Amino acid sequence: MAQKKKKKIQQDNNKSNGSNINWFPGHMTKAKRQMEENLKKVDFIIEIRDARIPFSSKNPMLDEILGNKPRLIVLSKKDKADPKKTKEWIAYFQNDHERAVALDLIKDSYKNTVIECAQQLCAPLIEKQKRRGINPRALRAMVCGIPNVGKSTFINTLAKRKAAQTGDKPGVTKSLQWIKLDKAIELLDTPGVLWPKFEGEYVGEKLALLGSIRDEVVTQDDLAFYACKWLTEHSPESLETTYGIKLQDNVYDTLLEIGRKRGYLLKGEVDENRLMKSFVKDIRENKLGRITWESVDEQTANGE
Ligand SMILES: Nc1nc2c(ncn2[C@@H]2O[C@H](COP(=O)(O)OP(=O)(O)O)[C@@H](O)[C@H]2O)c(=O)[nH]1
Ligand SMILES: [Mg+2]
């Protein structure tokens, strides 16, 4: 393929997919500034995180600029996460000015949940307006989160529209549009795209494994090794039952065993390329079951 054409396709991919943003410091500064501007116009914020990695899918800057603004944390892709751990995370996130809910953004209907949470979170504001004799106006919120957590799905579902809006990129300025959920609440129609957090052990691996950052950042081998090691320690039965294998003495041999069992062979040897790729794909497609890769205990142990 001509180099030019390749480049064009790459550019188009960048346009259509938020997960392909390259986060240069300039981007971050611009996104941060825009977020600060938009924050002034809303009463609370809806932060979407991936229920499978509630810690790694947060953005380090948001807490900093949010101040005391109420926040609704939506744990998305609940259908792919471990229900027991999701419950623990929800309890962990609730406090005076934060609520958390877990949702399947594609199948659940959640308009009323969002409205209810908004009214609880903004109760002090509503009270204040009433005391002053003002008719409470519609509460305003903006949606934000790192790439691929489900921001567009959330907004489009609530707005009952199909196509993702343009402008779902940091630094794209357009006039503010509000989506009315009912008379009590409005959403900014453009989400705030935040850069992923790369601090902390294996955060990059987890983000790549679950699709929030580009594959090229971490190799398929690294992802497969990381995932297989983690599963060996936390959920060995998912490996054994999914592939009908016995765990081996080390992660590499366990992976090779999976390859043999699946018949990924090349000239009598395990085709490792194919093995690593399809193992990572299986995890992304939830073939090993509903797995949450982070638990509340680790977080409290880390002083978060
Ligand atoms: N299974 C499942 N998939 C979801 C959910 N929310 C979003 N997705 C999928 O995740 C991908 C990224 O969603 P998108 O809304 O584009 O994320 P954005 O980058 O934050 O705007 C899409 O393929 C969605 O269909 C969910 O709750 N469950
Ligand atoms: Mg989007």
Structure, explained:
By secondary structure, the chain is an alpha/beta fold. Helices cover 45% and strands 13% of the residues. The protein has helices at 3-16, 25-40, 60-66, 83-93, 111-121, 123-131, 151-159, 203-209, 220-234, 236-243, 251-262, 272-284, 296-301; strands at 44-50, 71-76, 98-102, 139-145, 178-182, 185-188, 192-193, 265-266, 269-270. Strands 1, 2, 3, 4, 5, 6 and 7 form a seven-stranded mixed sheet that branches. Helix 9 (220-234) packs across helix 10. The chain is elongated, with a radius of gyration of 21 Å. The N and C termini lie far apart (48 Å). Bound molecules: guanosine-5'-diphosphate and magnesium ion. Magnesium ion binds at residues 18, 151-152, 164, 168.
Low-confidence stretches: 4-20
Order of helices and strands: HHEHEHEHHEHEEEHHHHEEHH
Q: How big is the Rg?
A: 21 Å
Number of helices: 13
**Multimer state:** single chain
Instruction: Indicate the proportion of strand residues.
Output: 5-15%
- Ligands present: guanosine-5'-diphosphate, magnesium ion
Shape: elongated
Compute the average pLDDT: 86
Helix content: 40-55%
* Beta strands, count: 9
Q: Alpha-carbon distance between the termini?
A: 48 Å
Structural class by helix and strand composition:
alpha/beta
- Sketch the major β-sheet: 7 strands, mixed
